[in-house]
Automatic annotation (TrEMBL), chain A:
Protein name as it appears in the record: General transcription and DNA repair factor IIH helicase subunit XPD
Major site of localization recorded for this protein: nucleus
Gene that this sequence comes from: ercc2
Pfam families (alphabetical): DEAD_2, HBB, Helicase_C_2
Catalytic activity, as annotated: ATP + H2O = ADP + phosphate + H(+)
Automatic annotation (TrEMBL), chain B:
InterPro entries: C1-like_sf (IPR046349), Ssl1-like (IPR007198), TFIIH_C1-like_dom (IPR004595), TFIIH_SSL1/p44 (IPR012170), VWF_A (IPR002035), vWFA_dom_sf (IPR036465), Znf_C2H2_type (IPR013087), Znf_RING/FYVE/PHD (IPR013083)
Protein name: General transcription factor IIH subunit
UniProt source species: Sphaeramia orbicularis
GO biological process: DNA-templated transcription; nucleotide-excision repair; regulation of transcription by RNA polymerase II
GO molecular function annotation: zinc ion binding
Keyword Metal-binding carried by entry: yes
Pfam (any one): Ssl1
SUPFAM superfamilies xrefs: Cysteine-rich domain, vWA-like
Gene Ontology, cellular component aspect: nuclear speck; transcription factor TFIIH core complex; transcription factor TFIIH holo complex
Length: 760, 394
């Protein structure tokens, strides 16, 4: 259907539209008009992706000079593929309606592992191996060597692409990863480099967060993207953690040992080259004197692991004299390494700021701040000069040098914590140096500065106002949309008491309480008897889950549950977990019924959807607060308080509630789906917790569903499940939660739509 | 285990929010209440069933009754099992009333096993006595869908192609314990054209959704006891036969009931064939009169029955006449919004005032009826009272 969104003609590839989609597009349009940033929350399963795409594509067509590019960032490869498929549908609709062929170019980009078509390289299993192998076939000096030595193996796909591919632009169309590979195979071009080159002139790019946020990769891939782009971060409820992770470094003893080996190898190689080809080292030295800004002829393949964000002026400067020659630099690295080793030998926990660290390192081993800053860049140069083909082995030394550069560049927003052992195992020495970023805005700042509109969207972003604060930007629109429903297909219940009136809570004081554990067990047992197919239960942590399950076993509760459903458990082992998941789904599929016990913040809570029968109920045992004793967290909380005036408790609650919302949101993946959301902790009933849940969940929590006992919960669930099992067809939705064009245009409906968006 | 006996006490059984059902109606403007949707579907059922469809008149139906632990639940009074069996008795009566030349068998499943309560047979009494006896049976363990289905199929697959093969499962449990992959069995059922329908007593289970969708049956979950009854009675009506099913002429015998006078010296008391295997059980086996098969003169005391000797189906003419109305159903009445209707303000049938949003008009005689009467006419009367009245008049 064709829509008129405040004067903009939008093609929408479906016959029906949800009212909230229309409202979402309105808000989005206003964001783009204002050329500002936006935060939009809309429940999953209401067609966020297609609304975003339809509107932005329409905008691009209407104002080609205002918005030149859409950069769509998603989290996982399957999600990326899904976006491209929606886009394809949209484009087909366009060409059907307008009758003209499209000149739109849209493509997905992923790592070499997903795009390589070289027969040997692509058969490798791990991303790192693929990258390393690719590098050893395509690096500029390897290709240079081939001129003298034709036996030197190179990648023919890259050669072909380099020779021809750059001149010929990628023909217009929609390319997902497989399309790119097919195209590459047909032409004999490398799809990865083709895609990386093509994103510069593509209209729509779909890729992972890291290509924009991780400074090590962003510098490579996204540097030259036009300013007039719209950036969309989908599923962005965890964006601050992604930012922080991309800037943090953890160093263990193992890293240092491997790094030691790397340095030794470097030393030997330098020695060897010195005997055979001293001129090369001299050449490098000369180049470094001239400055770091080198000719970027064959640069793109060479920079394999690039430096973290460096202020531009550093790149203009010359590398300081102390680390200019190769031997000196290796010596410098050795000293730095020894220093780190000595630091890891501590017996007690140390926490210091970056200036403190720099002063200490200067006092102890006389390393100045300036050479440290150039460490990463210098290492790259050296690796290039030494023509070390397999860079994958050098990840340890690269990590250390990145750390050196980061620690000397930023004096604020970071902290260094050295822990001699883990808190849980205080007897086993396992020293770790955490170089931890506390300010997510550092990583995302370039994105907000460079691009005209950045849209952050997800199903669970409540409370909306905290994101602009922790990411340090000023949005023009902030809105939360509810889900219009023809029948109430979600049923949030807050269980506060057991049948014996014992308050249910996972808070620290009552965590070990036998009565609480028994009542939790009772809840699961009773629910397993009334909920069909799959139940997903989330615990606050692995330790807590282990404790509870162990005592359920002793009390015989587990045995009783197993008469109703099979039990599967998520563990920290990824392979084990995916096995459990597979079997869980099988058990749901063939009617045996199953319970998956998993952990909030775990793999299951973030990435796995439990559609329809795979998740008829989600039970959240306790409030998933982070482990508050962690020093990194404490440092971050302190920083948030000092810099952004966010109180510790506010942030902790916000963080806990967004994870809880994520967990329970797993059950509802669309309007035809239905599910119970059970919050088993009396603290959820408090206004400060409840108020932080997304609005689309909150509005279904009535006073009658607060502080229930287990019995009441069972009664309500039974009633709800029977209601939901009644036949439900599309016609029942029409006019209420699903609209045709005519219905959309009616006065009354337009008035209703304006109430869907909830501005903050 | 120890919580089971305690739960048997009513006052400890937890809150039953009977008022919830009423509350739903007035909740928020956005939500269409489930009841309304249900009402719509009720009407739809009446409309849908009218069309030129071929109906399977000869039905072979196995009813599988879940007797697992969950049948002890007391959300139906006094408990699920008793309530189900009571309704089943009514169902069996009604079924034979509407489908006199069809057969029913009952299977019970509990403790991961399935066993036949009664074999496929056309005698309602036998089933009803069996059902009455079953009230005392203990509910234990889990049901097994696979075992019950395969037990039913073993018999059903030998039934002739022109009859409809059906299984109706009354499932209370939310779990099933199967010895093998049930999806293989579903494929077999599909190829054998067995139609499986399920009535769930607690909630929607995925495997049942797939089972019914694949085999062309229906899947319903009950809301309360009256809804349960309604859903059960849906299965009384013969389902449309699939176009693939065979057509054939069937030989039937219409035996005369002969009563030999006691004075007749030639008459000798004889056993009814159906008593020979002890299946009948009740009543004196030896009698003078009875129905004699026109082909082989075997004697039966009750009709309809399949002759044990020559395999001929024996029915009486009234039986056939009773299933007649399925073939010529009454046309659906047209629904007219109340505002547009100008005419009588009273329902022609019950003489009550027309208060609902819409009224229903018979397309042939243009009399108007209220919703309730519309349903009654279509479900029970099968003919429009006004049309009949006009015909018999001058």
């Amino acid at each position: 259907m064709k829509l008129n969104i405040e004067g903009l003609l939008v093609y929408f590839p479906y016959d029906y539209i949800y009212p909230e989609q229309y409202s979402y597009m309105l808000e989005l349009k206003r964001t783009l008009d204002a050329k500002g940033h936006g935060v939009l929350e809309m429940p999953s399963g209401t067609g966020k992706t297609i609304s975003l795409l339809s509107l932005i594509v329409a905008y691009q067509r209407a104002f080609p000079l205002e918005v030149t590019k859409l950069i769509y960032c998603s989290r996982t490869v399957p999600e990326i593929e899904k976006v491209v498929e929606e886009l394809r549908k949209l484009m087909e609709f366009y060409s059907k309606e307008t009758g003209e062929t499209n000149n739109f170019l849209a493509l997905a980009l992923s790592s070499r592992k997903n795009l390589c078509i070289h027969p040997e390289v692509s058969s490798l299993r791990f991303g790192k191996e693929v990258d390393g192998k690719c590098h050893s076939l395509t690096a500029s000096y390897i290709r240079a060597q081939r001129h003298s030595n034709p036996n030197q193996p190179v990648c023919r796909f890259y050669e072909e692409f380099d020779a021809v591919g750059r001149q010929v632009p990628l023909p217009a169309g929609i390319y997902n990863l497989d399309d790119l590979k097919d195209f590459g195979r047909r032409k004999g071009w490398c799809p990865y480099y083709l895609a990386r080159y093509a994103i510069l002139h593509a209209n729509i790019v779909v890729y992972s967060y890291h290509y924009l946020l991780d400074p090590k990769i962003a510098d490579l891939v996204s540097k030259e993207l036009a300013k007039k782009s719209v950036v969309v971060f989908d599923e962005a409820h965890n964006i601050d953690n992604v930012c922080i992770d991309s800037m943090s470094v953890n160093i263990t003893r193992r890293t240092l040992d491997r790094c030691q080996n790397n340095v030794d190898t470097l030393q030997n190689t330098i020695q060897k080259i010195k005997e055979t080809d001293a001129a090369k080292l001299r050449e490098e030295y000369r180049r470094l004197v001239d400055g770091l800004k080198e000719a970027s002829v064959a640069r793109e393949t060479d920079i394999y692991l690039s430096n973290p964000v460096l202020p531009d002026e550093i790149l203009q400067e010359a590398v300081p004299g102390t680390i200019r020659t190769a031997e000196h630099f290796v010596g410098f690295l050795r000293r730095f390494l020894e220093y780190l080793k000595s630091r890891l030998r501590v017996q007690h926990v140390v926490q210091e700021s970056t200036p403190q660290f720099l002063k200490d390192i200067f006092d102890k081993v006389c390393i100045d701040r300036k050479p440290l800053r150039f460490c990463a860049e210098r290492l790259q140069s050296l690796l290039r000069t030494l023509e070390i083909a397999d860079i994958a082995d050098f990840s340890a030394v690269t990590l250390i040098s990145n750390f050196a550069t980061l620690v000397s560049t930023y004096s604020q927003g970071f902290t260094i914590i050295i822990e001699p052992f883990e808190d849980r195992t205080p007897t086993i020495a396992n020293p770790v140096l955490h170089f931890s970023c506390m300010d997510p805005s550092i990583a995302i700042k370039p994105v907000f500065q460079r691009f005209q509109s950045v849209v952050i969207t997800s199903g669970t972003l409540s409370p909306l106002d905290i994101y602009p604060r922790i990411l340090d930007f000023r949005p023009v629109t902030m809105a939360s949309f509810t889900m219009t429903l023809a029948r109430t297909c979600l049923c949030p219940l807050i269980v506060g008491r057991g049948n014996d009136q014992v308050a249910l809570s996972s808070k620290f004081e009552t965590r070990e309480d036998f009565a609480v554990i028994r009542n939790y067990g009772n809840l699961l047992l009773e629910m397993s008897a009334v909920v069909p197919d799959g139940i997903v239960a989330f615990f606050t942590s692995y330790v807590y889950m282990e404790n509870i399950v162990a005592s359920w076993y002793e009390q015989g509760i587990l045995e009783n549950i197993q008469r109703n459903k099979l039990i599967f458990i998520e563990t920290q082992d990824a392979a084990e977990t995916s096995m459990a998941l597979e079997k869980y789904q099988e058990a749901c599929e063939n009617g045996r019924g199953a319970i998956l016990l998993s952990v909030a913040r775990g793999k299951v809570s973030e990435g796995i959807d439990f559609v329809h029968h795979f998740g008829r109920a989600v039970i959240m045992f306790g409030v998933p607060y982070v482990y508050t004793q962690s020093r990194i967290l404490k440092a971050r909380l302190e920083y948030l308080r000092d810099q952004f005036q966010i109180r510790e408790n506010d942030f902790l609650t916000f963080d806990a509630m967004r994870h809880a919302a994520q967990c329970v949101g797993r059950a509802i993946r669309g309007k035809t789906d239905y599910g119970l959301m059970i919050f088993a902790d009396k603290r959820y009933a408090r206004a400060d917790k409840r108020g932080k849940l997304p609005r689309w969940i909150q509005e279904h929590i009535t006073d009658g569903s607060l502080n229930l006992t287990v019995d009441e919960t069972v009664q309500l669930s039974k009633h709800f499940l029977r209601q939901m099992a009644q036949p439900f067809r599309q016609e029942d939705q029409l006019g209420l939660s699903l609209l045709t064009l005519e219905q959309l245009q009616s006065e009354e409906m337009l008035k209703k739509i304006t109430q869907i968006a909830h501005q903050t | 285990m120890d919580e089971e006996p305690e739960r048997a006490k009513r006052w400890e059984g937890g809150y039953e929010r009977t008022w919830e059902v009423l509350k739903e109606d007035e909740s928020g403007s956005l939500k269409a209440t489930v009841e309304e949707i249900l009402f719509q579907s009720k009407r739809k059922r009446v409309i849908e069933s009218h069309g030129q469809v071929r109906l399977g008149m000869m039905r072979h139906l196995y009813v599988v009754i879940d007797c697992s632990r969950s049948m002890e639940d007391q959300d139906l009074k006094p408990n699920r099992l008793t309530s189900t069996l009571k309704l089943m008795e009514a169902f069996v009566e009604e079924y034979f009333d509407q489908n006199p030349i069809s057969q029913v068998g009952i299977i019970m499943t509990k403790n991961k096993r399935a066993e036949k309560l009664t074999d496929l047979a056309g005698n309602p009494k036998k089933h009803i006595t069996a059902l009455q006896k079953a009230v005392d049976s203990v509910c234990v363990g889990e049901p097994s869908l696979y075992n019950s289905l395969s037990l039913a199929v073993q018999t059903l697959k030998h039934m002739p192609g022109h009859t409809s093969r059906e299984i109706l499962i009354i499932l209370s449990s939310l779990t099933t314990c199967d010895p093998a992959n049930i999806y293989e069995l579903i494929k077999t059922l599909k190829s054998l054209k067995v139609r499986v329908s399920v009535i769930g007593l607690s909630a929607e289970v995925r495997v049942c959704t797939v089972l019914t969708r694949e085999t062309g049956g229906s899947y319903h979950v009950i809301l309360d006891e009256s809804h349960f009854k309604e859903l059960l009675m849906l299965h009384v009506k013969p389902p449309p036969s699939s176009s693939a099913s065979e057509c054939s002429l069937i030989r039937m015998g219409f035996p005369q009931h002969t009563i030999a006078s006691l004075s007749d010296q030639d008459a000798k008391p004889s056993f009814s064939m159906s008593h020979l295997d002890g299946g009948g059980g009740s009543g004196p086996g030896l009698s003078l009169g009875g129905y004699f098969c026109p082909q082989c003169h075997a004697k039966y005391t009750e009709l309809p029955v399949e002759c044990k000797v020559c395999g001929l189906t024996l029915v009486s003419a009234p039986h056939l006449a009773r299933s007649f109305h399925h073939l010529f159903p009454l046309d659906a009445f047209t629904e007219i919004p109340e505002e547009e209707h100008h005419g009588d303000r009273f329902c022609q049938a019950c003489q009550g005032e027309l208060k609902d949003k819409s009224v229903f008009m018979c397309p042939s005689c243009h009399s108007v009826f209220c919703v309730e009467c519309d349903l009654f006419i279509h479900d029970s009367l099968h003919c429009c009272p006004c049309c009949i009245h006009n015909q018999s008049g001058p």
